[in-house]
Write a structure and sequence with these properties.
- The chain is mainly α.
- The protein has one domain (2-164).
- The chain is built from five helices and no strands.
- The protein has helices at 2-39, 51-72, 80-83, 88-123, 135-164.
- The longest helix has 38 residues, at 2-39.
- The protein is elongated and about 80 Å long.
């Protein structure tokens, strides 16, 4: 069950991360174009109006889009120098605790992010120069945050499975 669902979880996390990477490239291009326009002011060019507002919204999406992929691939910080000698069962327990804690963090961040988005909607806040609704950036970031929660549930379940499944028996010697 977990193996089959793991493929779907991986595809979702990869797709969201790839979207984040695409937006990151677009942010970089937008920034280069704007800086080039600012540099070439004497020649009649201009920086892009509201570029920093788009970069802000895009950056929030990018960061949130990379979180599920990072969690799924255990890209978060770990201190292997202390855990390598503890054995596979204890490391499985540590993985479970880490996954559950990251899931709790994902739930809290998403909850507060959603509350912030609802405030932006209710007050009708917009960006200063472009007049774009602020909640659009919040809504885009929710894609990554919700994906992170899905990945968090899956990795927690997988870590629990790894903890309760007996380790494989190692056979020593050669058969007679």
């Amino acid at each position: 069950m977990l193996a089959a669902s793991g493929l779907w979880i991986q595809k979702i996390a990869r797709l969201v991360a790839l979207l984040g990477g695409l937006v990151l490239v677009l942010i970089a291009v937008l920034t280069v174009v704007s800086i080039t326009g600012r540099t070439l002011l004497p020649f009649g060019f201009k920086p892009l109006r509201g570029q920093f507002e788009l970069v802000e919204a895009g950056t929030v999406f990018v960061v949130c889009a990379f979180l599920p992929w990072c969690h799924l691939n255990r890209g978060h910080a770990s201190v292997a120098i202390f855990t390598d000698w503890l054995g596979p069962r204890f490391n499985a327990f540590i993985d479970l605790i880490g996954d559950v804690l990251l899931l709790a963090i994902a739930l809290i961040i998403t909850w507060r992010h959603l509350a912030g988005m609802m405030d932006k909607i209710s007050y009708g806040e917009t960006t200063f120069l472009l007049g774009l609704p602020l909640w659009w950036g919040y809504a885009a970031a929710l894609v990554g945050l919700v994906s992170w929660i899905v990945v968090g549930f899956w990795t927690s379940a997988d870590s629990l499975r790894a903890l309760v499944t007996p380790p494989p028996v190692k056979l020593t010697g050669t058969p007679r």
